[in-house]
Amino acid sequence: MAESENNDLNQFQPNYAIAPGASLRQTLKAIGMSQMELSIRTGLSLKHVNQIVHGSAPITHDTSLAFEKVTGTPARFWNNLEVNYRDRLARQRENQIDEEILAWLRSLPIRELTRRGYLQGGPAPASQLQQVYRFFGVANRETWERVWRVPLAAYRKSPTFKSDMPALASWLRLGELEAALIECGPFDTKKFRALLQEIRGLSRENPSRFSQELVHKCAGCGVAVVFVAEIKGCRASGAARWLSSSKALIQLSLRHKTDDHFWFSFFHEAGHLLLHGKKETFVTDGAEADAAEQEANRFAETILIPRAAQSELRTLTSAKEIEDFAERIGITPGIVVGRLQRENLLPWNRYNDLKRYLRIVEQRSNGDE
Questions:
Q1: What's the rounded Cα separation, in Å, for the pair 332 and 330?
Q2: Sign, Cα dihedral of 311, 314, 320, 322
Q3: Number of neighbouring beta carbons within 10 Å of residue 269
Q4: How many angstroms from the chain centroid is the CA of residue 34?
C-alpha cells in the first residue's frame, strides 16, 4: 500500500488570494507615506506603484530591494508575499473544474484508490483532482492523456479489448509505484533468460516462499516483479513494460487465482521483455491475441513444458499420470492441468483440485493485512 504522498495535503490552504499590494498599502499607512512619495523614493512610476497596490503588477526582486530601503521592511518579506500570491492564483486556476474534468474524475476508481491508501478521503472535487494528479505523477489532464492513455491506444483499438481504460491506467500506476520500492540491478538479458529455467522449479514451492524468492531473483536481473490486486473494470491478469532502459516491470494481478494462470502469466510477460521492444506497454486482459501476444504465449508454453515433453500431453488421462509427468519435468501439476484444458485435451471441470489457489495479501494504510 502507499503512505500519504505529501503532508502538504493536510495543511490549511485558503481558497482566496491576497495580493502583496494589500500589505504595501498597510505599510505605507503605518509610516505615513503616500504612493506618490513611494514612487519618488523608489524611482518607480506612480502608475507602477498603483498597479502593485492593486495586484496587477508583480513585486520583482529589484522592487523588493527598493521597498526594503524605503520602508525598512526586509526584501524577503515582499518576495515571500509575491511568491505565495502567485502560487495561490495558479492553484485557483488549476482548481477550476469544468464538466469534462469532473466526468473524467468520476471515471476513475477514486473509492478503491482511497481504500488502498493512495488517495485521501473527501468529497471536494478540487482536492480530489490534485490528489489524482499526484497519484499519477502528472501536472494536468492533458499530460495524463499523453502519459497514460496514448501508450495504451493500440489496446483500445482492439474490438476485444476488455478493460476500462481509467481502471487499467490506475492499476498500471499502482504497479509503477510498487516497482519504485524494489531496488534492481541493471537489466541483463542473458542472465534473465537463464534465470527463467531456474524459476520454473519455484512453482512446486510453497507460495509464501516462492513469491519472495521470485521478486528477489528477478530484481537481480533488472526486473521488478510486483503483485497488484485487480481493480474493478480492469481485467488485466498481467502487464510488462520498461520503466527505464535498464529496469523492466512485470506486474501480475492473480486475477484467476490459480497457479497455472499465475505461472503462465509470469512467463508470458517475461517473454515480452525478451522478445519485444522497450517502448511498448504489453497488457494481458483476455483480448484477442495479436502476433506479439501469440509469440509471448508460445514462449511461456515452451518454458513451462519443453517441446520434447509436449508430445506426452495427449497421453495423460488420470490424476496420477498428470502428477507424475509434472514431477518428472519439474513443475506443479496445476500447470499441466491448465495446459491440457487450454488445448481442449481435458474438460474445464476436471482435475482442478490439482491446482493451487493463490491470493494477494494487501497491506492497508492502517497496517492491517
A1: 7
A2: positive
A3: 27
A4: 56
Cell numbers standing for residue 18: 491576497
State the CB neighbour count (10 A cutoff) for residue 79.
19
Output the pLDDT for position 1: 41
Look at residue 26 and give its three-state secondary structure: helix
Residue 345's closest CA among 330, 366, 325? 325
Adjacency order of strands within the sheet including 223-227:
223-227, 248-252, 238-242, 282-284
Distance CA 219, CA 179 (A): 10
pTM: predicted TM-score of the whole model, two decimal places? 0.79
Nearest CA-CA partner of 179 in 151, 232, 137, 231? 137
pLDDT at 10: 45
Task: Label residue 335 exposed, middle or buried (CB < 10 Å: 0-12, 13-18, 19+).
Answer: buried
Domains and CATH numbers, the chain: 20-94 (1.10.260.40), 98-157 (no CATH), 165-354 (no CATH)
Query: Which position has the grid cell 531473483?
Result: 217
Cell triple for 365:
494504510
Residue 253 corresponds to which cell in the numbers above? 494481478
The Cα-based distances of 224 to 118, 227, 247, 318 in angstroms read 20, 10, 7, 38
Average pLDDT taken over every residue of the chain:
89
pLDDT, one tens digit per residue, over 18-50 is 889 999 999 999 999 999 999 999 999 999 999
Q: 3-state DSSP call for residue 215?
A: helix
Contact 255, 230 (CB under 8 A): yes
Task: Quick: pLDDT tens for 121-136.
Answer: 776 888 899 899 999 9
* Cα separation, 159 vs 50, whole angstroms: 62
Cell of 350: 476436471
Cα Rg of the chain, angstroms: 29
CA dist 307 and 301 (Å) reads 9
User: What are 239's strand-pairing partners?
Assistant: 251, 283
pLDDT digits (tens, 9 = 90+) for 285-339: 876 678 999 999 999 999 999 999 999 999 999 999 999 999 999 999 999 999 9
- Residue 123's SS3 state is coil
Q: Which residue has the cell 515433453?
A: 309
